[in-house]
Amino acid sequence: MQLAIAAGVAVLATGLFLAPLGDQLDDQAMRRALAIAQTTAEQPQIAADLGATPASADGPVQREAERIRAATGAEYVVIMDRRGVRWSHTDPGRVGETVSTDPGRALAGREVMEIDDGTLGRSARGKVPLRDERGGVVGAVSVGIAYDSVRARLVHAVPGLFAYAGGALAVGALAAWFISRRVQRQTRDLAFSDIAALLAEREAMLHGIREGVVALDRGGRVRLLNDEAQRLLGVGGEAVGLLPDEALGAGRTADVLAGRVPGTDLLTVRGRRVLVANRMPTDDGGAVATLRDRTELEQLGRELDSTRGLTDALRALDHEHANRMHTLLGLLELEMYEEAVEYIGEVVGDHRATAEQIAERITDPLLAAALVGKATVAAERGVALWVSDRTRLPDRLVDPRGLVTVVGNLVDNALDAAAGTTHARVEVELRTRARTVVLKVRDTGPGVAPEHRAAVFTEGWSTKEPPAHRERGLGLPLVRRLAERQGGSVTVGEAPGGGAEFTVVLPEALAAPAPRTVPAASAGTAVEEESR
Asked: Domain residues for 49?
């Protein structure tokens, strides 16, 4: 195909060159004929002989015209009088006859160049007026250049032109061969149809797999995002052509994609999703990053942790319950019935007091149930979970599940930090200001050093060894994401008496209270009671 293009270009260039070449040769022949005619007409003796001698085949005009023709190589030199009668001709027998073409313009004093057919065939012709000493027109001179000579020059030029065209074609063919070889090496000798098929398969594979793929060029800009990557990152096709920081905003996810965070299986949080990212450089200076959604696995891991904690708590409660049953059985066998009744009241009262205390201050059932369960786990781990006396949370949460996640993660971290310390304790405080919820979780653990207080909210950062089934360092980043999604914030500081204190502010976390409708009959009483 490249050779055919090169040959076509060579033929087209040759044709475009030959088209004006014929016209140029015609113009040169006509100008040469005109120049010979002008030179002939400038000889005063010819004009004098034209008026003094008769038109004859051996007259002076004929002899001079033939001399000029022989000297210049013209096809003919015809001298005529004002009547158009020839006084010279290459065929002496035609001397004295009228010319075959119209000499009117030349006899009128104008010079003429033309390609015309005469008695001697097709020729390039030049005609000029012949003037006497006084400047009057006494005749005309017509000089012709054989058109065959023009054609011969054109044919003579064609081989050279074809030689140049052939050379150009050879160079083009050689260049096409080198380009073809290079293209074959780069495409691994695949045909265009194979490349098109591979491209179609690649597009189907990229957009069909359930793993996000992000390709970046050597400048670090996104050049490809498959459907799963767009879903996981929460961006659209407009991110193509942008830097990760521009498409995703500053954060760990952008740092991982840009290669500023080294390593494999890097954890990052995007929105409410936990992602595992791997980045591999490519030969062209770019990179390809893959993203896997680990949100469900992380949730399962947390549920497994909770289940294990509850299992341990139930096991401990089982032992404690067996001990209490043995104690109760002993009291009954000793016929100490009053003591047995008192003992049962104390045991039941402790658990009931804890549940009632939480339910009285937190009216949302999901959050109250979560804290009751956390209290059981905390007791099994030797940590006292206390709900602050200042806690008041009405049952008007906009997103109770989100707040349960925030409280659960903070309490789990606090239990991990406080477990094993002297007088281990975790305190939860939930207060409201208008429609804003302020959550504080304090523990008696070692606390968070000031230089680490910003890093604790980074994905993957943790001071504890991760369990076998999942990574650590995701709970606090999820808390931050949930808080920021509601326009809030999360900070960490030092609790009174030591330990860490996490504060979460969630604006607009409470729904607006429903307006109370007061019956007309009791409106006055209600107003009076309200004023009291």
From this structure: 2-153
